[in-house]
Design brief:
The protein is α+β, with helices and mostly antiparallel strands. Helices cover 35% and strands 20% of the residues.
C-alpha cells in the first residue's frame, strides 16, 4: 500500500479570532488548572494597575460572586469607546476580541505596563463562557457582552454616570463534559488566600493604590482592603514584622533614568536568612535577573568599602562575600521599564542589560551616603556581616565533612541509611522516618529495590533559629545531606540527587507534624530547589484501623471514620484501633497503608509563592512567640477534634 505523502496549501489551518486561544490555552496563561484560572483575574487587574502607573486610577475592586463570576471594577479613564481607525469597530471591542491589541505597543497609551502585553483582556474573554464589559466615560455607561470570545451585540449606551472607569465581569469556561462546548478549566473555584497574597503584593508595589477583595460566595462575606502609602518601605516592614530589625526604618532608594524607574527598600534583621525579592513592572522575578545582580553587587561593594574605610575590615582580612552581607537582609528591588525582556524557562528572569548598571550605581551612591550619615547603624550592620563571615568559615569546615565523595565510596553514606539497590534516581525514593521502632518496621516492609529508609533520632535542629555552621554540626542534618548526595545552599545540584522522591513519614499526631515542619524548614532554607522542583512528599499514614468480622479498613481522617461508621450502621459495633505512631504498625500494615505505591496516599509539597512561604516559616519557626501565638489562636478553629 502506497503511503499518502501529499502536502499542499489546503492543509494549512488558520485559526481565526480568539479560536487559537481556546485551542491552546496553555500558550497564553500557562495552564488550565487552578494557577491558570487565577491568571485570568490577574490579567484584568493588571489593566487597572497600568492605569494607575499612568496616573489615572487609584481604586480597584475585585468581587467573587456565588454564581462563579469575578467582577473587576476600577476608576481609571475607561477603555476607549471610539471607532478604531483601522478595524472600524469600537476600540473596547477590539481590545477584547483581537490578540495583541492594546495601548502597550509603542503608542502613547502606556509608557510602562505589566501583564502579558496586550493579550490579557482578549485572552480572558476567549477563555470565559460569558463576559460583560461596562465603560464609564463622558457621562455615559457603555456596555457589551461576549460568549466564549464572540460578540453578542454591538456596544451600546445603557445609562448615564458621573464616574469614569471600567467594570469587567467574567465567568471562566469550566469543563462540564457537555458537547459541543466541553469547557477549558479543570476548576472554577477561586482561592481567596491566593488572590489576597497577590493583591497585597500589588498594593505594596504601587504606593497609594487601593485594592479591595470581596468574597460573597460563603455564608459570610469576606473582605480585605490593601492600601499602603509607604509602598515598598511598607512591604519590607511587613516582611520583617515577625523579626527583629537592626534599625527602625528601612532604607529607601529611588531614581529615574531614560524612562526606567528604580525603587529599592532594605533593612537588616537579626535572623540568619536572606529575604530579597525582585520585581519588574509589578511581575515577580523569582529567578532574579539584571536588576537583582546590580543590587547584590552594590550592597556587597558598599559594605566592604565602609569596612575598609572605618578599619572594621583589617588590611589582611579577606573581603566579605555576598552571602555574608545578605545574612538577615530583607529587601525589595522593584524596577519599571518601557520594554522589559524576560528570560528563563518560566519567563521570570529580567534580561535588560541596561538596568544592571542603573540599579548598581543608584544603590551604591545612596546606601554609601546613608552609612556615612548613620554611622551607628552602619557599624551594627558591619558587626552582623563580620559575624556571618566567621560563621561561614566554620560552616566551610563543617561542609567538608558533609560533602559526599564519589559514588563508588559507599562508606561515605551514613551508617543508619538502609539504601536501595536501584541506581536510577528517577526510580528511587527515600523515607525519612522518626525513631528506631518506626525505622525498623519501614526497613522490613519496604521494597528494597527502589525504597531507602533513613531513620532519625528525635527532632532535628530548628534551622530557622541557628546559623549554618551549627546546623551542619547536627548529626541528623549531616546524615540527610550526605544521603541525598546533592550538597546544599548555593552548591546544591539537583542533577546529583540520589532520590527523586524524598518522603517525610512521621506519626499522625502533634509530634509527628512538628517533626515534619522541622524537616520542611530545613529543606526550604538549605535546599529550596528540592521543594521548587517537586521532590518532597509527605506520607499519609492511617489514623485508624476499623475491623468488623473479617473485614479490615484503614481510615485516614476523623471525617472518614464518621462516614464509615454511618455506612456500617451504628449497631454494627466494629473494633476501632487508633494508631498513636508508625511503630505500632506491623511492617506488613505499614507497607499496605503507607509505602506501597499501589495503595498508599501521599501528597507533594509545593511552594506556590516564595514570599508567603518565607513569611510562614519565619512566623512558625522563628524567635518571636507573640505572633505565633496569635496565628494559633486565629487558626485553632480550623483544627477539629485535635488529639493531643
Amino acid at each position: 500500500m502506497q503511503r499518502e505523502n501529499h502536502y499542499d496549501e489546503s492543509q494549512i489551518q488558520v485559526l481565526e479570532g480568539l479560536e487559537a486561544v481556546r485551542r491552546r490555552p496553555g500558550m497564553y496563561i500557562g495552564s488550565t488548572d487552578e494557577r491558570g484560572l487565577h491568571h485570568l483575574v490577574y490579567e484584568i487587574v493588571d489593566n487597572a494597575i497600568d492605569e494607575a502607573l499612568a496616573g489615572f486610577c487609584d481604586n480597584i475592586e475585585v468581587t467573587l460572586a456565588k454564581d462563579g463570576s469575578v467582577t473587576v471594577k476600577d476608576n481609571g479613564r475607561g477603555f476607549p469607546v471610539g471607532i478604531h481607525p483601522k478595524m472600524g469597530r469600537p476600540a473596547v471591542e477590539v481590545c477584547l476580541t483581537v490578540l495583541h491589541a492594546g495601548g502597550k505597543f509603542g503608542g502613547e497609551g502606556y509608557k510602562v505596563s505589566g501583564g502579558l502585553h496586550g493579550v490579557g483582556a482578549s485572552v480572558v474573554n476567549a477563555l470565559s463562557s460569558h463576559l460583560q464589559v461596562n465603560v464609564y466615560q463622558d457621562g455615559r455607561i457603555y456596555q457589551q457582552e461576549y460568549e466564549r470570545g464572540k460578540i453578542l451585540y454591538d456596544l451600546k449606551v445603557v445609562g448615564e454616570t458621573e464616574r469614569t472607569g471600567t467594570t469587567i465581569r467574567f465567568w471562566p469556561d469550566v469543563k462540564t463534559g457537555e458537547v459541543p462546548e466541553p469547557g477549558i478549566f479543570e476548576t472554577g473555584n477561586f482561592d481567596f488566600d491566593t488572590l489576597k497574597t497577590r493583591f497585597r503584593e500589588m498594593a505594596f508595589l504601587n504606593a497609594g493604590i487601593r485594592i479591595e477583595l470581596r468574597d460573597e460566595r460563603g455564608e459570610e462575606v469576606r473582605e480585605k482592603v490593601f492600601h499602603y502609602e509607604g509602598g515598598i518601605v511598607s512591604f519590607v516592614e511587613y516582611l520583617n514584622r515577625h523579626k527583629t530589625p537592626l534599625f527602625p526604618t528601612p532604607v529607601y532608594i529611588s531614581g529615574v533614568k531614560n524612562g526606567s524607574t528604580v525603587e529599592v527598600a532594605l533593612q537588616w534583621n537579626d535572623s540568619f536568612n536572606e529575604s530579597v525579592f525582585s520585581f519588574a513592572n509589578n511581575i515577580h522575578t523569582p529567578e532574579g535577573g539584571t536588576h537583582l545582580a546590580g543590587f547584590r553587587n552594590a550592597i556587597t561593594k558598599v559594605v566592604n568599602d565602609y569596612g575598609r574605610k572605618t578599619g572594621m575590615l583589617k588590611a589582611n582580612d579577606a573581603n566579605l562575600t555576598g552571602d555574608d552581607v545578605r545574612e538577615g537582609l530583607t529587601a525589595i528591588v522593584s524596577v519599571k521599564l518601557v520594554e522589559p525582556q524576560f528570560e528563563g524557562q518560566t519567563k521570570t528572569k529580567l534580561g535588560n542589560s541596561e538596568i544592571r548598571p542603573l540599579v548598581d550605581s543608584m544603590v551604591t551612591d545612596k546606601l554609601s551616603t546613608y552609612f556615612e550619615e548613620n554611622p551607628g547603624t552602619a557599624r551594627t550592620v558591619m558587626d552582623k556581616c563580620l559575624s556571618a563571615a566567621r560563621a561561614r568559615e566554620a560552616a566551610r569546615k563543617a561542609r567538608d565533612l558533609t560533602r559526599r565523595k564519589t559514588a563508588l565510596e559507599s562508606a561515605s553514606l551514613p551508617g543508619k541509611l538502609a539504601d536501595c539497590s536501584e541506581r536510577d534516581p528517577a526510580k528511587c525514593e527515600i523515607f525519612i522516618v522518626e525513631g528506631d521502632s518506626a525505622g525498623g518496621s519501614a526497613k522490613q516492609g519496604r521494597d528494597r529495590h527502589f525504597q531507602a529508609i533513613l531513620p532519625l533520632r528525635g527532632k532535628i535542629l530548628n534551622v530557622e533559629k541557628t546559623r549554618m555552621d551549627r546546623a551542619l554540626s547536627n548529626a541528623e542534618i549531616k546524615a540527610m545531606i550526605t544521603a541525598f548526595g546533592a550538597g546544599f545552599g548555593k552548591e546544591f545540584d539537583p542533577a546529583k540527587l540520589r532520590y527523586h522522591r524524598i518522603v517525610c513519614m512521621t506519626d499522625a499526631d502533634v509530634d509527628g507534624n512538628h517533626i515534619r515542619i522541622l524537616l520542611l524548614t530545613f529543606f526550604y532554607r538549605f535546599m529550596p530547589k528540592l521543594i521548587e522542583e517537586g521532590y518532597v512528599y509527605a506520607a499519609q499514614p492511617p489514623l485508624y484501623k476499623v475491623t468488623r468480622g473479617k473485614t479490615e479498613q484503614y481510615v485516614y481522617t476523623d471525617d472518614q471514620l464518621q462516614r464509615l461508621l454511618d455506612e456500617m450502621g451504628r449497631d454494627a459495633k466494629p473494633e476501632i484501633q487508633r494508631y498513636k505512631g508508625l511503630g505500632e504498625m506491623s511492617y506488613q500494615q505499614l507497607w499496605d497503608t503507607t509505602m506501597n505505591p499501589e495503595t498508599r496516599s501521599m501528597y507533594r509539597i509545593e511552594m506556590k509563592d516564595a514570599i508567603a512561604a518565607d513569611e510562614l516559616f519565619t512566623l512558625l519557626m522563628g524567635d518571636q512567640v507573640e505572633p505565633r501565638k496569635e496565628f494559633i489562636e486565629q487558626n485553632a478553629k480550623l483544627v477539629a477534634d485535635l488529639d493531643i
